[in-house]
Amino acid sequence: MENLLSIFIFANYFLNIFVCFAWIFWSLLEPEREHRRNGGPTNVKSLRASIVTFSLLTLTALLLTWYHMIRFFELSYTQWDKKADPDIPRTMGYWLRDTKLFEEAYRNVVMTPERWWWSQQIFLACFGWGIWLSYQGAGGVKRAGGKGRSKVTLVAYMVIAQLVAVSVAVGLFFVDALTHRAYAVPLTSKKQKEKEEAQEAQEESGLAKVLLTIYLMLSFLPTSALPTLMQASSGTLLNKLFFPALLLPHVALFIPMCFVHPVSRRFTRLLYTCSTAGSVVCHAAASGAVLKDTRSWMHAAATAARIVGGGGGEGSSGLQLGAVVVEAIKRQYWMLVGTHPAVSSVGSDVVMFVVCVAMWAGMEGGAREGMWVGGEEGKRQTGRKVGLWKRVGRVLLASGMMAVGGAGVGALMFAGDL
C-alpha cells in the first residue's frame, strides 16, 4: 500500500506539471482567439522576434534544468540500490517508499555555503517575480502587459515555477506578456496613463497591502533561516523545522496569486524596493559565507603545503582578498557543473533566470516611468526607436546588476514594466 501511495504522489507530480503546461499553452492562444472574434489592430509583426527569442530561452531552460533533474533521479536510485536490503525488489515503488526524494534534493542544495549561494538566489528571484505576476493579472484588470489573466492561469505559472523551474515559468510568462501586447491597444496619451493610475489607486485594497506584506515576511524570514536549520544536529528541534521552513515560502508564493485584489503602481514599487533590498542583504550574507569558507579552505591547503614542503608555504596572513575571490569564483563554477545534479539543476535555473530577465530588460522592458527607456512597448509609447547597441548595453547592465546583487535584483527589471 505504501508503494502505491509513493507511486501515486510521484505520478501526480508529473500530472500537475502536464496539466499546468496545457492550461498555459491554451491561455497563450487566447489573445489571438479574441482578436479573430472582435478584430482590431495588432502588433504581431513587431513582436514576433521577441516572442521567438523568449520561446527558445524557455525551451533551453527546460532542457538544461531537467537534464540535471533526471540525473538526480538516477543518482538517488543508484544510492538507494546500494544501501537497500538485498531481499527488497528493485522497483520504483520501493525506491520512492524508502527515499524522501524532494527533501533529499533540497537538503543537498543548502548543505554548504557554496551550494546555498546558488539555491538562495532562486528563492529570492521567485519572490520578486511573484509580485510582478500578481500585478500583471490581478483581478482581470488590464495592465502594461496587456489583458489581465485569470487566477487559475497565475496559479499555473507559479506551479510550473515550483515543480519545474523558475526560469521556465518566467520565460513562459514573458511569452504570455508579449502575446497579450501583440493584440493590445497601447496607451499613448499621458492623460490616459494618469487616468489609469488614478483608477488603480481608487481600486486599491487595504487587505491586499496587508497580505502582500505578510507574503514578503513569510518568504524572506524562513528562507534566511534554512542554512541554520540544516546545520543543526540531527534529531534536534531546529533540524526538524527544516522542512516546514522550506515549505512555508513555497506556500506563501501563492498568496499574491489567489487572495490579492488590485494594488496601485506606487505600492507595487514599494514592494519591489523591499524585495530588492532583502535580496541584496541575503545575497551579501551568502557571498560572505562563501568567501569565509573559501579562505578557510585555502588556509588549510597552504598549511598542508608548508608542512609537506618543510615550511615553504604561506599561512592565512599571506592570502590576499583578490586571490580568495578568484578561488571562490572557480569553486562556484565547479559547484554549478561538477558536484551534485540537484545543485547543477538549481544553478542552471539561476543562470537561465538571469539571462531571461536581462534579455527582457533589453528587448521589452520599456518602462512608463521606470529605469528602462525603450523596448517595443516604450517605442509605442514614446515613438522613439531604440538602437541595437543601446539594447545590448541594457542587457549587460541588467546582467551585471544581478551578477553582483544576486538574481533577486531582477525585481528592479520587473519594476521597469510598471
What does this structure look like?
- With 418 residues, the protein is mainly α.
- Helices cover 77% and strands 0% of the residues.
- The chain has helices at 2-28, 30-38, 44-83, 92-98, 101-110, 113-137, 151-163, 166-182, 190-203, 206-231, 237-240, 242-252, 255-258, 265-308, 321-337, 341-363, 375-382, 388-405, 410-415.
- Helix 6 (113-137) packs antiparallel against helix 14 (265-308) and helix 7 runs antiparallel to helix 8.
- The longest helix is centred in the C-terminal third of the chain and has 44 residues, at 265-308.
- The radius of gyration is 23 Å and the shape is globular.
- The model is unreliable at 139-147, 312-318 and 366-378 (pLDDT under 50).
Work out the helix count. Answer: 19
According to DSSP, the number of beta strands is: 0
Cα separation of the termini: 52 Å
Main beta sheet: strand number and arrangement?
A: none
- How many whole angstroms does the radius of gyration measure? 23 Å
Output the helix-strand order. HHHHHHHHHHHHHHHHHHH
Specify the overall morphology: globular
* SSE-based structural type: mainly alpha
Spans with pLDDT under 50 lasting ≥5 residues? 139-147, 312-318, 366-378
Helical content class: over 70%
Question: Mean pLDDT, as a whole number?
Answer: 77
Fraction of residues in β-strands: under 5%
